[in-house]
Amino acid sequence: MIQLRNISKHYPVGFGKHEILKNVDLVIHEGEFVSIMGPSGSGKSTLLHILGLLEEPSEGEYLFQGELVHKMNDKKRTQLHRGAIGFVFQAYHLIDELTVYENIETPLLYKNMPSSERKSRVADILDRFNMVAKKDLFPNQLSGGQQQLVGIARAIVAEPAVIFADEPTGNLHSDQAKTIMELFAELNKKDGITIVQVTHSDLNAGYGNKVIQIMDGRVK
Amino acid sequence: MFRNYLKIAWRNIWKAKQVSAVNIIGLAVAIAGALLLCITVYREFSFDNFHEKKDYLYQVYREEFHADKTESHSNMSFPLGPVLKAEVPGIKALTRLANGATVMKVGETSQTIGLRYVDSAFLDMFTFPGASGSHKLDMNSVLISEKMAGIFFKDQDPVGKTVLLRAGTEWKSYTVAGVLKNVPDNSSIRFDALARLETHPSYLRDRESWGNFSLEVFVQLNPGVSPESFERRGKIFMEKHYAEDVQRMKAAGARKDKFGGVLHLGLLPIREIHFSEHSNLQDAKKPILYMLLFIAAFLLFIASINFLNLTLARAFTRAKEVGMRKTLGAARSQLVLQLCGEALVLFVISLALGLIITWFVLPHYNSMFFSKAVYSFSILLKPKFLLGILAALLLISFLAGGYPAWVLSRTHTLLVLKGKVSSGKTNYFRNTLIVTQFVFSCLLICGTIIAWQQMNYLRNRPLGFNTHEVVSIPVSPDLNGHQLLARLRAELEQQPDILSLTGSSNNFGRGLDGSQSTSIINFQLFDKDVNGHWQAVDYDYVKTMDLQLVAGKDFDRSMGLDSFGFVINERMAKQLLALGIKEPVGYRFRMDSEGPEYHINGIVKDFHFKSLHEEIAPLIMHLNQQDERPLYIFVKTKPGNLPASMKTIEAAFKKAAPGQAFLASFVNENTEKQYKFEATLMKIFISGAVLTIIISCMGLFAIAMLAIARRTKEIGIRKVLGASAAGIAGLIAADFLKLVALAILIATPVAWYVMSEWLKGYAYRIGISWWVFVLAGLLAVLIAAATISFQSIRAALVNPVKSLRSE
Asked: Are B440 and B298 spatial neighbours (Cβ–Cβ below 8 Å)?
């Protein structure tokens, strides 16, 4: 599903360059639950951003579902963001002005889904996450764990093939983290969604079935 | 999707209440101001638009290309019209139009009305629809307006009834042939009644006189005939009928127009009459209207700048949302559309508020600038106007909403998500906009101060005659001025608070009758052209008006009716001295070879018998002759109790002319009315300045608020490191005051240039002093400082723990 060939990423610094990723080769198959681990500054977030089409690699080839990413135009990428890719962030990034319901609904709006289908999808998700009672609350009225639940709900409502999670439990305490990670495992097993997460914690990595260790921009 | 946008827009507006309020109120005020100005301009440009044949209608005017100047007039002689139609091809119809304010009488009702004498083609050419009766004008019939029908006939049908019109000294009877709808408010040609030109009192005398220019001529050209071809023929026409003048002008070195003639006969499209200096019917000046439009556009502009600035500043808080939407699959166009939509919501709210403000302010606006309600709200509901408002609304939302949207959506998704929107460039942009606003504020402050100084200067400049204690009484055309003056003299001479009385053919300034007239006489002395204003006065004119005799003496009753004596002013005397006449007093001369011999009685010191727009011109005053009735009576009162003196005069007037309206006013009131235009301009300046400053300050207020919000952490750290509250407040204020200072630097030379150009329009004007700019600059800085201080002091006083914790 995802194939990286010889991917490098560097920024120009002065006369030289600052290398973040060096010659990364990576294959992620459909249905895998991958954890990217490594110390701070090792380049794991950058790798995730490249995988999520938020950043461009400086060198190398990236095939997403068999297609070369660097040959895609903006429109095609937007299409992938609408359908195939879901994101979960450490800081949740919910839209403060929208209610829980509306936040979850937003990706469907961009897919131009008819109103009735939208309603039933959002209702299903709310039901599944036990958040029906909270659907009219605004993000700042929820606890961090609940906000992240909404973040995940939003990520999966459009039924993506893969979810990229950037330290999804980084801002949560252990109980909440556990709930979230169990949810990811369930999504992976039951729904068959490919999950790629960046994490510091071995505990969290344990939920997945593959670990990629990254150090100084190189995959070990 | 769209509902989702609206919802977000609404919640965003609600969330940032202060900023939104600033945005909405600022815009609403600007919209209201712009709408008022647009209504004003729209009305002026709608003048004479209602004539169905407006594309073919023209007023004829003539231009004289003298060696040193070009003079243009629209008054024509009696025979010119018919001969023009006979000799110049392409004219479908032609009418002459002569003014005749006269008194109409039906039974016991009598009133001064505006009667116009016209040719029979008049109503075929112009669109003045009939209300009842016939639409045709016979020799002995009149057509009257609905308003006049109401005044003179109440509920009766006026058609077929007889009315009496005063012609010179006698009454003439006419039959009312029909009633016309009232003349539209936006017509240059105005009348209460129409009669045939052939019944004009001077028709028989002037029918063949080419040299007496007293009426207006309008033509309707055949379709396909260009005004240019008419004007080409006009040259030949003028050379034929004014051969003598052409020769004299050529001998004096006259220049040639583009057709090669020194006398040009031109055509003025009917829609241009309202604005053209060539026409006597001119009533508005296009530059002023463009200035008003400019102010309107400018108000919207600075309000939009506020909007732009605030949206840009808010972009930092919106950045996260935009970034998130991008990762959720929002296309760039969708984001731009959403942000524009939000702008549109704000603008619609502001527009509604602006319309409400306009609705409430319109009556005050009317009474502030004009004596009657000329502007109505209904103008706004015309499709053209609605379309214009809609277009402006969309344009502004697109520009003011689109730019920030573009900046936001352009930025890289990751950066936005991390909350890093490039701020360097936007700050330059923001600062430029703030500077622009304050440049205009300073300009308007300078303009206001200088215009105000000039107004004061005009008001307080000694005019050379007594303005405060002299009452001016217009004499209605159906009264005999000689008789009235004699009766008033008899009545008032014994009164202790009345010093003297006199009469004249000319008023000072504009009295309650609103009229003003000029007559200039030209004659030859030693083969040189001499000209002077020609004014008839009565005995005691010099004494009543407090003029100062420099040499000779005033007209004297003991000398009998001195028909051939003149009292002249110093300018006139100077003209005579230049001709080699060493002793003007007592000098005897003839104005033409057959005429009587005149002599000069006395010379008075120059005084401003015209407005201060004009330099004092040579003046010749002669004694009122029996057939020259005084049109104005002047009464000099004793200083002390002016209202009581006015009452005395009114009582005497009522006795001398029972049933007549008493329209007396003090001369200084009349002279001030000459500066009505300046006064209006002043009001526009002041209103514009106040509005601009308010809107600019609202913008500054909100920007300061947002800028401080962004620097909360910095301020917190500085405080922890030991900065004082005053130091921090100063630090923030300095940032903005620098911009205001820059604005002042830019505005000063521009203001100096613009205002000195404006002052050139006055013969008597002030010099621009440096302190005006200092004062304007200080004002701008003070206002800006006051605006920012509230925010910056609040920020400086906040407990640093709070501001640091929020990070």
From this structure: yes
Any residues with CB less than 8 A from the CB of B470 and at least 6 apart, and which? Answer: B544, B545, B546, B634, B635, B636, B637, B666, B667
Pick among B17, B318, B328 to test the A interface (most A CBs inside 10 A) = B328
Taking Cα atoms as reference points, which of B624, B585, B618 lies closest to residue B602? B585
SS3 B665: strand
Identify which of B435, B294, B432 has the alpha carbon closest to the alpha carbon of residue B747.
Answer: B435
Residue B66 CB-density burial (10 A; 0-12 exposed, 13-18 middle, 19+ buried):
middle
The residues of chain A scoring below 70 in pLDDT are: none
Q: Give, as one character, the DSSP assignment of residue B766.
A: P
In whole angstroms, give the CA distance from residue B368 to residue B673.
15
Q: How many CA atoms lie within 13 A of B648 on its CB side?
A: 21
Measured between CA atoms, the residue of chain A closest to residue B317 is A96
- Record the tokens describing residue B632, joined without a space: 């104005």
| pLDDT digits 0-9 by tens, A62-93 | 999 888 888 888 788 888 888 889 989 888 88
pLDDT tens digits, residue range B30-76? 888 888 888 888 888 888 888 998 899 999 998 888 877 777 888 88
Between CA B450 and CA B598 the distance in angstroms is 47
**CA distance, residue B807 to nearest chain A CA (Å):** 14
3-state class (DSSP) for residue B453: helix
Sequence-ordered list of residues with C-beta below 8 angstroms from that of B512, at least 6 positions apart, any chain: B474, B663, B664, B665
Q: Would you say how long chain B is, in residues?
A: 807
Please name the residue that has the structure tokens 């998704």. B413
Taking only the tens place, the pLDDT of each residue in B7-21 is 777 887 887 787 788
Indicate whether B543 pLDDT > 90. no
Partner A contacted by B414 (CB < 8 A):
yes
In this prediction, residue A63 carries a pLDDT of: 92
Using a 10 angstrom Cβ sphere, with 0-12 exposed, 13-18 middle and 19 or more buried, the burial of residue B762 is: middle
**ipTM more than 0.90?**
no
CB atoms within 10 A of CB B405: 26
From B342, B426, B454, select the one nearest B682 (Cα to Cα).
Answer: B454
pLDDT tens digit sequence for B320-353: 777 788 888 887 778 777 777 778 888 888 889 9
**Rounded CA gap, B230 and B221, in Å?**
9
In this structure, are residues B48 and B384 in contact, taking their beta carbons and an 8 Å threshold? no
The answer to whether the beta carbons of residues B582 and B576 sit under 8 Å apart is no
Shortest alpha-carbon distance between residue A59 and chain B (Å): 19
User: Distance (Å, rounded) from C-alpha B174 to C-alpha B102?
Assistant: 14
Scanning every residue of chain B, which has its alpha carbon at the shortest distance from the alpha carbon of A48? Answer: B414
Mean model confidence pLDDT for chain B: 81
Predicted local confidence at residue B703, as pLDDT: 78
Angle of helix B770-797 relative to helix B725-759, nearest 10 degrees, comes to 150
**Cβ–Cβ < 8 Å for B433, B309:** yes
Q: The tokens of B698 are what?
A: 């609202």
Q: In what order do the strands lie in the sheet with A2-13?
A: A16-28, A2-13, A59-64, A67-68
Which pairs from B9-16 meet CB under 8 Å and 24+ separation?
B9/B341, B9/B342, B9/B345, B9/B346, B10/B345, B11/A97, B11/A98, B12/A97, B12/B318, B12/B342, B13/B342, B13/B345, B13/B346, B13/B349, B15/A97, B16/B314
CA of B342 to nearest chain A CA: how many angstroms apart? 13
Assess contact for B280 and B215: CB atoms under 8 A.
no
Residue B384 CB-half CA count within 13 A = 6
Q: Are residues B4 and A94, on separate chains, in Cβ contact within 8 Å? A: no
* Chain B nearest-CA residue for A81: B329
